[in-house]
Inverse folding.
């Protein structure tokens, strides 16, 4: 089995040890870092996402795959730092104020990184002011808001309002997601889109930024 197929399979299966071993072997053999990422790690996380959407994988399977991907990313990312065009865009993510859940957000972050986006993760329980500060200082193309309870999803609208009041809303796309969130709610609060899961969130980011 060549390194591409082997690394892809290791990531998709959530085998961190094998993924790290194959990534290092490929790099030592002269494989370009971007190819190791795209043809190995990204291909593997894409396969995990496909299996998840088709109902063959469950959340624990996806978590293991994202952890294996992150191992490879940790090896390859420093080698990509100086490459032009290595990133499709910058995304700021965070669970809104009052919400301490981060599993879904972490999977979205991993899959965005897998798709070559630069991701700034603000963490959980993030107040609107912190999203405004990140928008001003980081100038992201997208801000992703997560909420996993009906009581905290209301704070998504507060973030959008705060961005509008700061004069920053027109310069950034807002996407939202989380268990209680719907496309209808996204429309109601003036978000630019809704991702039902991490795979859809990545596709949505690409559509909004006009990148493949």
């Amino acid at each position: 089995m060549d390194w591409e197929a082997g690394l892809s399979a290791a990531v998709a299966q959530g085998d961190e040890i094998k993924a790290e071993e194959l990534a290092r072997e490929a790099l030592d053999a002269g494989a370009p870092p971007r190819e190791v990422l795209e043809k190995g790690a990204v291909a593997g996380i894409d396969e995990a996402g496909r299996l998840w959407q088709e109902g063959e994988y469950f959340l624990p399977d996806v978590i293991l795959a994202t952890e294996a991907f992150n191992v490879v990313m940790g090896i390859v990312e420093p080698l990509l730092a100086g490459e032009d065009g290595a990133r499709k865009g910058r995304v700021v993510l965070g669970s809104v104020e009052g919400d301490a859940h981060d599993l879904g957000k972490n999977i979205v972050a991993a899959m965005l990184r897998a798709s070559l986006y630069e991701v700034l993760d603000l963490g959980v329980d993030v107040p609107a002011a912190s999203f405004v500060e990140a928008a001003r200082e980081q100038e992201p193309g997208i801000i992703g808001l997560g909420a996993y309870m009906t009581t905290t999803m209301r704070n998504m609208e507060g973030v959008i309002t705060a961005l509008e009041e700061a004069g920053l809303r027109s310069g950034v796309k807002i996407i939202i997601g989380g268990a209680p969130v719907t496309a209808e709610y996204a429309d109601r609060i003036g978000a630019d889109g809704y991702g039902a899961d991490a795979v859809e969130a990545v596709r949505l980011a690409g559509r909004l930024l006009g990148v493949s």
